[in-house]
Design a protein that fits this description.
single chain, four-stranded antiparallel sheet, Immunoglobulin-like, about 240 residues, alpha+beta
Length: about 240
């Protein structure tokens, strides 16, 4: 009876660990979490499939209209096609080359691929220049599924408030210091150079998964040791 209780406790502990790990894949997010004002940055959007019985077939990401980027480059992705929508700027801006820009990329849509239940995928974009007069930027997104369901990741997060149910992907902006001002991030020079940013995201999630597995194995090992000790004491009691 005591052994059964111990095994039951093991199952509950393992379930709790898995449940705690689930939020890491729960939302559409963007990496890195912080970037430097006035520079360029490769943004990697991580898109999970939250359903048990539908395939995610597309993601639309909106770029900020109040702080439009003068330069946007989309990394090609095997199995997916993308469409960058341009919209006119209310007020033209001058880019780093001294050229006047009258329109900006307002939205990027990825279609044609599949993200199955239990999977996630990543989509990379190089943008610049990042504004210097705000400390954060949000990228509202709409995720599409093959059952006709659309999930809107558009809720704004407020500091000191609980996270909304469907928060928009967001990055924090920090002031440039020294040589960082007006610089470019090392992953934005070419599509090949931007690949490490995507790889880093995959490795980070993989490391989290391995850590969870190691924790579960450790818990199971402790419980099996307790079971063996209980049986050993029972055997000595019977001999007495």
């Amino acid at each position: 009876m005591r052994t059964r209780k111990i095994i039951g406790a093991t199952a509950l502990a393992c379930a709790a660990v898995v449940t705690m790990a689930a939020p890491a894949f729960a939302h559409v997010t963007v990496n890195p979490k912080t970037a430097t004002q006035g520079g360029f940055q490769t943004l990697t959007f991580q898109v999970p499939n939250e359903t048990d019985d539908a395939i995610s077939t597309g993601i639309d990401v909106q770029l900020p209209a109040d702080h439009p980027f003068s330069s946007v480059s989309v990394q090609p992705k095997a199995g997916w096609t993308y469409e960058a929508t341009k919209s006119p700027l209310p007020t033209p801006v001058t880019n780093d080359d001294g050229q006047q820009v009258t329109e900006y990329v307002s939205e990027i849509k990825w279609t044609g691929g599949q993200i199955k239940p239990g999977e996630f995928d990543t989509f990379a974009v190089s943008v610049g220049t990042l504004p210097e007069d705000v400390d954060s930027l949000a990228f509202p997104a709409i995720q599409h599924y093959d059952n006709g369901q659309d999930v809107s990741w558009i809720d704004q997060s407020a500091e000191g408030q609980p996270e909304p149910e469907h928060p928009a992907p967001q990055i924090q902006l920090t002031a440039a210091t020294g040589d960082e001002h007006g610089g470019t991030d090392s992953t934005s020079s070419s599509s090949d150079a931007s690949s490490p940013a995507v790889t880093a995201v995959v490795k980070k999630e993989t490391n989290n998964t391995l850590g969870i597995i190691a924790l579960i194995v450790g818990v199971v090992g402790l419980i099996l040791g307790a079971v063996a000790l209980t049986r050993s004491r029972g055997g000595r009691g019977a001999q007495t």
